[in-house]
Amino acid sequence: MRSMMRLGLCGACRNFPNIGWLCQARTWSYCLILILTLNIIFYLNSCSFFTDPADIKNWKHGFVNELPDHHFISFRSRLGEDVKDTLRSSVPPTVHYFWCQTGSFQFQHYLSVLSAYKLLQPSEIIFHYNSPPERDDLGYYQYFEDLLRDLPNLFPEPLSDSRACHENSLEALEYISDMLNKQGGVVLGVNVVLSENILQFMNKPISLNHVEINFASTGVLMMSPNVLTANTKTSILTSPTNIQCSPNSTFRNHHHPCAVLLRELFPVQIFHLQNDFGELARFVGYGQKELLVASPQKDLIPNIVHYVWLGDNYFTFFNQLCLLSALYIQKAEKIYIHGNKEPRGIYWEEVKNRPQVQFIYRDFPHFVFGNELNNPSHASDILRVDVLLRYGGVYLDWDLLLVKPLSEGQRKYEALVCVDWPQAGHYPDTFNMGIMAAKQGATYLQFMMESFRHYVDRDWAFNAIQVPYKVYEQHPDSVLLDRHLQVICFKGSCHPTWRAGYKEIPDDVQDAPQFDWKTEANGIHWTFPDPTEFSDKETLLASTGLYADIGKYVLHQVGG
User: Which among 241, 253, 327, 557 has the fewest CB atoms less than 10 Å away?
Assistant: First the structure.
């Protein structure tokens, strides 16, 4: 074997005389080691086994299929006024940020960069960083990746000099001003959101919002080239500030050129914010000053109910009770059960021939946008979105009892969803899609379907409950967040999400928040475990307590 390998290697060397030294008797073994090493390197870099699709670095929201048009709209052009010609300003349209911190790139940082992009119309935004923004474990903070995807002129660059990150503002300003003095431009703190009043400073030789601590966070410096000299530098940089930024709580659109955010801001906090900063933040982030809310329409969501049934399984009494609640409480015109195997058992035989109930054969989806699906719960995530997109109606899980029908007022919205109760990392909320309603072709569902282009099959929660919330963050006016759509019960504790403290798990179930289940919610959803009270009809009738009362109420509506 060794002689054959050596013959092959030396044959190659005869064809390539420049590497003939490899064929010497003493070096053929080194040649073999080199080739083996190269093969291992090529294998590691090309084999998909070493790229984990569930790695958080590969997770993406995947719900934007085109560049947001509002990124290219300035305040003035939207108002029908002339756009300020920043190309003729004395300050060159190059914007610099200094990312000196560790941790995640948050929504207020996202607004800062977008405000500079919209208002200053820069030729380049240079994002200097000590270490790049970090991705959190559950993939909530993807705002930096969103900007890299959407802005053609955002350029991340490793920081060459740490003096810009000095905690003492004067020390940082010393370095930053020397840099701008050579070429001019703008330096913005990552917590500064600009308003249109900043444009008046683009024709001044130098403008400064001086801060005592952490200039890279809340400072502003705008300079023409060669403004500073050795004799004037100190006096100019220590002179009274001529840019007066305001905390976001006291910001006024027609007075302040910028707002400073000293605390983390989440998108949901600006959707209904009725003050000047709310208008500014909505325009910067979403392209409109108006409140970001879903609006009712004339036509209604169809009064049809969809279920998904995957696998060869028995239909339980609990399943039957859920279906009957849709039939007798929602009074659904049709109930469609989409699945690859018709349910089995006596409880199915008792309901399958009702005229409103129809089983629709649909094969188990094995791929979505080329991503392989292996888990039935993930297949259900996709099917529920698909059937509502196609037909409209109400989707229900098999462990949810309706106790109050969806009203015409609810059904006037294009789509309805409800939040879940557990805390998931940094997400302000997550959505539980065990009940949702939508019109055919609803915008929210279109973006939900788009989100499956980046599917993480090995994590049950990311695409199922976390991404639906992120879709809402991007398109808040496409769906009504109705906290009364369902109450989720988990391990004996129910969590009405319109009450304070709904994310907490009480030590004593008896201390759980009380609610009027007949009037305050449309459905009660037992995510885990299935109540023993619903094992069969006899057990239910013999049981007492909250769960038994709900089950007996449904039976009473059925007439049983």
Answer: 241
Q: Which of the four CATH numbers 1.10.490, 3.10.450, 3.90.550, 2.60.120 does domain 69-286 have?
A: 3.90.550
d(CA 281, CA 264): 13
Rounded to whole angstroms, how far apart are CA atoms 11 and 278? 75
Question: Could you tell me the CA-to-CA distances from 456 to 8, 165, 504 in Å, in that order?
Answer: 45, 37, 28
- Both tokens of 466, joined, read 């976390």
SS3 540: helix
The percent of the chain in helix, strand and coil, each rounded to the nearest 5, is: 40, 15, 45
CA atoms within 13 A on the CB side of 447: 20
**Range 124-139 average pLDDT:** 94
At 56, give phi and psi (nearest 5°). Answer: -60, -25
Q: Distance (Å, rounded) from C-alpha 494 to C-alpha 421?
A: 9
Whether the Cβ atoms of residue 337 and residue 365 lie closer than 8 Å to each other: no
What is the four-CA torsion angle of 417, 422, 428, 430, rounded to 10 degrees? -30
69-286 and 304-485 agree in CATH topology: yes
User: Which pTM was predicted?
Assistant: 0.86
Beta bridge partners of residue 357, listed in sequence order? 335
List pLDDT tens digits, range 59-73.
Answer: 777 665 556 777 776
Instruction: Give the closest residue to 196 by CA, choosing from 258, 263, 103.
Output: 258
> Taking the domains of the chain in order of start, what are their residue ranges?
2-39, 69-286, 304-485
304-485: which CATH architecture?
Alpha-Beta Complex (3.90)
Separation of alpha carbons 416 and 249, rounded Å:
32
What's the residue count for the chain? 560
Segment 329-365, tens digit of pLDDT: 999 999 999 999 999 999 999 999 999 999 999 998 8
Which of 73, 71, 76, 72 is CA-nearest to residue 197? Answer: 76
